[in-house]
Amino acid sequence: MKRSVRDFDSRGKRVLVRVDFNVPVKDGEVTDDTRIRRALPTINYLLSEGARPVLISHLGRPKGEPDPKYVMDPVAARLRELLGQPVVKLDAAVGPEVVEALEDWDGEGVVLLENSRFYPGETKKDPGLADQLASLADLYVDDAFGAAHRAHATTVGVAERLPAAAGRLMEEEIEYLDQVLEHPERPFVAILGGAKVSDKLGVIESLLQTADTLLIGGAMGFTFFEALGYEIGDSLVEDDYLEEAKRLMEEAGDRLVLPVDVVVAGAMEEGAESETVPVDSIPPSKMGLDIGPETVALFEVHIAGASTIFWNGPMGVFEIDDFAKGTEGVTRAVAESGATSVVGGGDSVAAVNKLGLEDRMSHISTGGGASLEYVEGKELPGIAVLPEE
Ligand code: ADP
Ligand code: MG
User: Fold this and answer.
1) Does the annotation count 369 as an active-site position?
2) First-to-last C-alpha distance (Å) of the chain
3) CA distance 25 to 31
4) What is the DSSP string of 188-217?
5) Whose CA is nearest to atom 4 of ligand 1?
6) What is the dihedral of CA 128, 129, 130, 132, to 10 degrees?
7) Which residues contact 319 (CB under 8 A, 6 or more apart)?
């Protein structure tokens, strides 16, 4: 068990909290505040303990220098509404003006520092930047699971310099992912979809060690079909991974469940004429864009029987309504399964949110890339650096 923010005696102390406020912003407004909401338990806990939270996050991909497009002001505004407490937004993350502002701070509410990626030292884990950040506080809490796969100044750098602990969200992420990977209640069904097999090969490999059944949907399926020698038309395929796909199918046997029918169309666009065909009869000039109804029914049976579910990656091009039915069907099935369900991946989570079923999942991971690396069994530097209790 990692040391928890709850193990700290933080009363009256300044606590630097690395949060993941990397949210979408449009015209100066936060358009999806999920990640801000998910950080509230840690912030509220610290406030209830009488601590003085100083928050830091990255936002977007500025190029190591200040960029008005990526200032934290819209985040501060939204946080103020959600928290109902003062949020003092500073226009820098380190430097004399920050030191001074923190000295002048009356300790009410929280301080939000400026975007950490305005500093070139952030992504380089620069010791100078980490020293400056560490000097701002007495304690460090990492609640940014979504950034835990990056060894940056605000994740690993500061944790090496201050007494460090995991925040509540970080703890929840680790707890659910560990439950799935280490002691899943069986049957354990994993569902993988999305665009690229190459990104998720390691994940398939790792899930084959623990899962009872692996359901494959999305574009990923076509690499397997090509490996089986089927005509896949213009469907998305990764030819470099055919051998790998064959090997995985041999290793998995009937634990790997591929689609039986697909929705195909001539183009990936709204209103394109589409039809459903068996997977071994895809017309040469068509592309597969969703799993078909028979596949949904087949997957539903597996999902309904599961006690644990891990899901990453949509079953089709769900952004277009005509090709969203497979993903919708799977989402509803997971919601109704009664299983412990963990959903990771930006697009899969967006699909769940679109149907308003987020409350029906046991855990929605805030880290797409981080959750996949965790499932792959990779050590995440931001977690590894946190001390055991
Ligand atoms: P996540 O963000 O959940 O990890 P990915 O980023 O791996 O998921 O994949 C999501 C993308 O995969 C979506 O944009 C979706 O349109 C695309 N996709 C799913 N199925 C297909 C398909 N059959 N053909 C082309 N693209 C697909
Ligand atoms: Mg994605």
Assistant:
1) yes
2) 6
3) 6
4) EEEEE-SS-HHHHHHHHHHHHHH-SEEEE-
5) 345
6) 90
7) none
> What single-letter DSSP state applies at residue 379?
P
- What tokens does 204 get? 């398939």
CA 80 from chain centre, in angstroms, equals: 24
What token pair was written down for 190? 């994993």
CA distance 358 to 72: 26
Which residue among 202, 246, 346, 378 is the active-site one? 346
Q: Is the pLDDT of residue 137 over 90?
A: yes
Look at residue 289 and give its three-state secondary structure. strand
What is the model's pLDDT at position 368? 86
Q: Phi-psi category of 315—alpha, beta or left, where left has phi over 0 and alpha has psi -120 to 50?
A: alpha
**pLDDT per position as a tens digit, 343-361:** 998 899 999 999 999 999 9
> What gap in Å lies between CA 208 and CA 229, rounded to an integer?
23
- pLDDT, position 115: 98
- Residue 316 alpha carbon, nearest atom of ligand 1: 20
Backbone angles phi, psi at 170, to 5 degrees: -55, -45
Q: What's the mean pLDDT when you consider all of the chain? A: 96
Query: What's the one-letter identity of residue 65?
Result: E
Catalytic residue flag (residue 344): no
* Mean of pLDDT values over 91-96: 98
- pLDDT of 196 reads 82
**Tens digit of each residue's pLDDT (9 = 90 or more) over 251-284:** 999 999 999 999 999 999 999 999 999 999 999 9
Burial 287-319 (b: 16+ CB within 10 A, else e): bbbbbbeebbebbbebbeebebbbbbbbbbbbe
Residues 6+ apart with CB under 8 A from 348: 193, 194, 311, 312, 313, 314
* Active-site residue, selected from the candidate residues 2, 35, 89, 117: 35
Interval 174-213: pLDDT, tens: 999 999 989 999 999 999 999 988 889 899 999 999 999 9
